[in-house]
Write a structure and sequence with these properties.
The chain has a five-stranded antiparallel sheet with strand order 1-2-3-5-4. Strand 1 and strand 2 (28-32) form a beta hairpin. The chain has 143 residues and is of the alpha+beta class. The chain contains four helices and five strands, in the order αβββααββα. The chain binds adenosine monophosphate and zinc ion. Zinc ion (ZN) binds at residues 4, 7, 9-10, 49, 100.
Length: 143
């Protein structure tokens, strides 16, 4: 496994820093977020150190996301939330504070449970042609 000795999540995987472990296998480690946004708020991380989604190879991503349903269902069975949000922050402006890729699993219990996705839609700002042009712009850069 690739480790970054200065990375707090690599230290958690190594057992150098304690954590409330939820699940572990050869590819991933899951543990409770120290700042529980809602009860059962869990972080799922690859054992291979990778800074964010941009620098993550397909095999690491595949293994990481493959474990999401397993952990999500365990949280659901444990605490019976009425919903669950997945969140992955990349780079500081998007809220990333730890630079080891992680997926937040945030069980939801109601509108005022502590998690507030501030989702403002801008549908009227884009015509269908704009959407087609933007989609092409992205598609041309998929490698
Ligand atoms: P993000 O802001 O998306 O980078 O998320 C990083 C998360 O890591 C935050 O929600 C922190 O509460 C959490 N965190 C930081 N240090 C620890 C730790 N030692 N154990 C558990 N969670 C941590
Ligand atoms: Zn790391």
């Amino acid at each position: 496994m690739t480790h970054d000795s200065s990375c707090i999540f690599c230290k958690i995987i190594n057992g150098d820093i304690p954590s409330a472990k939820v699940y572990e296998d050869e590819a991933v480690y899951a543990f409770l977020d120290i700042s529980q946004v809602t009860k059962g708020h869990t972080l799922l991380i690859p054992k291979t150190h990778t800074q964010d989604i941009y620098s993550t190879d397909e095999q690491t991503a595949e293994k990481l996301f493959a474990r999401v349903p397993k952990v999500a269902n365990a949280i659901k069975n444990a605490f019976e939330p009425i919903g669950l949000n997945l969140l992955n922050n990349n780079e500081a402006p998007a809220g990333q504070s730890v630079y080891h890729l992680h997926i937040h699993l945030i069980p939801r219990y109601g509108e005022n449970d502590g998690f507030e996705p501030n989702w403002i839609v801008h549908t009227d700002d884009y015509s269908n042609d704009d959407l087609q042009a933007m989609a092409k712009q992205i598609n041309e850069r998929i490698s």
